[in-house]
Amino acid sequence: MRIFISSVQKEFAAERQALGEYLSSDPLLRRFFEPFFFERDIPASDRRPDAVYLDEVDKCDLYLGLFGEDYGRENGHGLSSTHLEFNEATRLGKPRLIFVKGAADETKHPKMQSLIREADGQLVRRRFEDAADLLPAVYASLVDYLDATGKITDAPWDTRAARNATLTDIDPEHVARFVRLARKARGFPLPVGAEVSEVLTRLNLLDKGQPTNAAILLFGKDPQHFCLPSEVKCLHFHGTEVTKPIPSYQVYKGTAFELVDQAVDFVLSKLNRSVGTRKTSTQAPRDYEIPPDAVREAIVNAVAHRDYTSNGSVQVTLFADRLEVWNPGRMPTTLTLEQLRQIHRSVPANPTFAEPLYLAEYIERIGSGTTDIIRLCREAGLPEPSFSISDGFVATLYRPIASHPPSDLIPGGNAGTKSGPSRDQVEILHKCQIESSLLDLMELSGKTNRTKFRDQVLKPLLVDELIEPTIPDKPTSSKQRYRLTAKGRQMLTALGNKVERP
């Protein structure tokens, strides 16, 4: 089906280009729609322009109108090309999709205001702020059209009404939190106190008044009640292979935003951190061995682009040498694994689901997610990440080789184990480069139970002679301090952390 995209005004140059690329690349829409652009698809001729584009309106199956600030050049009867096109589509009974730029119309040309009012009296139109805001709105409208005309028997999963869900299944606090984030990050136009239904309508997350699957996953009170596989499974292995029993295994539930935050926190809590010097502030800087932004990007991409019709769950697995983020998803047919390593066109698998993640600044829209992961890891001096297809999509981020100390330097180490010191223990080793009290070390680790701290954190370091007490004969002395040993310095070097005084 051919779509006539109205308006040749310069104010819509970015939107028109984005629309053309999007309609040509989206796996679903490109099966059904071919966009027509007057200035691109019509060769030079001696025919009057208005006669040509009105003929094209007649040939097209749908009319997509972009209404903005300007009215456009007027003909002898005082009508612009956009107005003439709209009138012709109306006369011919063509399906019309109207998108109005901006939240208010007061600053628009008076004749454009009149055209918008004319359209309001005949059909439902949607508003948008920029090219990025326009694409998911067009996607939702075209999917609705395909569904209503029987071109597709099932709408895409994210746009379908969640079975048996009502607005009471949406948590108003989740919606309010999103609005606060989106207003700050992207200038989302609705106020924090907006009604839930108003926000969902703005985000194209209602289907005939019923929350869609995307709405439930983003803002639901109990998303997994409607989609159990939407949970995220996080595993941590001390070695480089999957072994049982699993040392650390968590299954996270909640909204998409909560899943991302919980999974990122899980990974960061297991990674080693190096502690720098207090040259510029009272707080010593701490650097994770894998950049947190790269970890977050890999996880949010898995949550945003996975196949939600699959029974599989996103799986985040941390090994001694790498982080693997797997999701039951497919590569868009227009992209290759090699193209993921370059800036590429964004083709989200779940557009109406991905849109709020973008507005809350969890993801970007320009296809830079994988390239950002690569750049961040390069800047950290890490091996280049890899991407692969293995019964789903896998992003692999590598830990520094020096993160895996020789077996004879492993705390509590018994022969053959591949576990390393915990994050808290690494920080304590750094801290003990100067003599430190028990309370100082507890405060550094954020621990409050003295007995548990001694047994679980401090004792293994003492047993393995990585630190030593300054008064060994009086272990409970109020003047007792702890300092790094030569073996402890070797450990820090093996971990790739420069040994310096804080």
Low-confidence stretches: 43-47, 402-419, 498-502
Strand arrangement in the largest pleated sheet: 9-8-12-13-15-14
CATH topology description of the largest domain: Heat Shock Protein 90
Number of domains: 4
Number-wise, the strands total 17
Give the terminus-to-terminus CA distance: 67 Å
Helix percentage range: 25-40%
CATH class call of the largest domain: Alpha Beta
- CATH architecture classification name of the largest domain: 2-Layer Sandwich
Mean pLDDT reading: 83
Derived from helix and strand composition plus strand pairing, the structural class reads alpha/beta
Shape: elongated
Rg from alpha-carbon coordinates: 29 Å
Give the helix tally. 19
Describe the structure.
The chain is an alpha/beta fold and 502 residues long. The protein has 4 domains: 154 residues, Rossmann fold (3-Layer(aba) Sandwich), CATH 3.40.50; 64 residues, no CATH class; 173 residues, Heat Shock Protein 90 (2-Layer Sandwich), CATH 3.30.565.60; 90 residues, Winged helix-like DNA-binding domain superfamily/Winged helix DNA-binding domain (Arc Repressor Mutant, subunit A, Orthogonal Bundle), CATH 1.10.10.10. It has 19 helices and 17 strands. The strands form 5 sheets. Strands 9-8-12-13-15-14 form a 6-stranded mixed sheet, covered by helices on one side. A 5-stranded parallel sheet has the order 2-1-3-4-5, sandwiched between helices. A two-stranded antiparallel sheet has the order 6-7. Helix 1 crosses helix 7, helix 12 runs antiparallel to helix 13 and helix 13 runs antiparallel to helix 15.
